[in-house]
Amino acid sequence: MSTRHHLQPISAVILLLVLAISPSPSHSSTHNHEQVNLESNPISRFQNYLRINTAHPTPDYAAAVNYLTAFAATIPTLQTRTLYLTTPDKPLLLITWPGSNPSLPAVLFNSHLDSVPAEPSKWLHDPFAAHLSDDGKIYARGAQDDKCTGMQYLEAIKELKSNLDYTPLRTLHISYVPDEEVGGLDGMAKFVESKEFKELNIGFVLDEGQASVNDEFRVFYADRSPWKLVIKSAGVPGHGSRMYDNSAMENLMKSVEVIMKFRENSFDLVKAGQAANSEVISVNPVYMKAGIPSPSGFVMNMQPSEVEAGFDIRLPPTAEPEFMMRRIAEEWAPAWRNMTYQITEQGSLRDYLGRPLLTATNESNPWWSVFKQAITAAGGKLAKPEILSSTTDARFMRQMGIPTLGFSPMKNTPILLHDHNELLESSVYLEGIKVYEHIIRLLSSFDGASVSEGR
Ligand SMILES: [Zn+2]
After folding, report:
1. Residue pair 115/181 in contact by the 8 Å Cβ criterion
2. Does the keyword GTP-binding apply (predicted)?
3. 391 CA to middle of ligand 1, Å?
4. For a FRET experiment, which of 198, 290, 334, 337 has its CA 20 to 30 Å from that of 221?
5. pTM for the whole thing?
């Protein structure tokens, strides 16, 4: 029972409409509060959202919130609130669709307002013009990550409410948070700690996922946690011509050898197909600081007394944090080799009850079953659930023990997040709205009793 049979013609009609409009790259922006431009079709509305530059280091959050608020105002019964949990330049927009039984745990759909920067000279089209090519591709920073989902949530609700007069049983919330791309500390991290969040009584969250290059949708049940490790060694300085034991450099190089061997073992598992990239502990050297500077570079006949190196480590939620700590202390930076270390960032691997930071993707989690049914109802196929290699805001909800899946309905799409020429096919975008209609319908009408058990 596929909905795609009637979907394709609709997409084609909208695409023709859009092509007839032929937007120019110099399209007026929506930055001005008096000029929120809500055109009458989903593609134009998506383009207008993409044209609001929310790239770091100077994201225009106010314009984005203003635009989304104006769009939400066109949909009956939606309530909007802007929260300022840190500074006035970092708003968090919360849109609520009240359910008929507000005592049931609510469902949250999250997306972030910000994006990573773009280098316009490396792009085929201006990354903030949201250019629509003749073959239906929308080029824009944020097209995949993750302004698509942010707008699709609202478009799906618009369709369900305005055209089908659907009323949810459970209350539905959409959050638009700042600063995901810079760690989320002034965004989702603050939100989940707030009394406003607790009052929402969230039972299940959908957050961003990633594009799939084939016909199956990808879904993520965990993120890897980042640890940032700095190791230092000290030693007696000496003439460059002398060989002696325990120089700072020798001790650091021994550690680097041990760490690179560990990296090789992890990578071998991936290369042999025994584990996905995101299922192993990865470690990569990211900087080394050593040597005594001279006007022409470095002093060449002196062995330095202090050296330092930095490593980016990513751990899947199945890793044992205590074991990793011991490995670092005893093998990677042992005091007996005159080494010290600092873990400057240590992402959690456990939730507040000490359970691995992951969401179950089996029958023990009733939300998972409902989500899966919705994808089937939308005529879609799900790939095997994955751990995300990197990190998203989903970790903050999982930390609170709330089941959270990462999902962005983009199939047959190259993975271009954070890349030059980030793009999304307009037909894929429109199909995603249909997928969310099914998801919202099933999740919001789900009346399971023991939903607090699922995680
Ligand atoms: Zn993202």
Report:
1. yes
2. no
3. 9
4. 198
5. 0.86
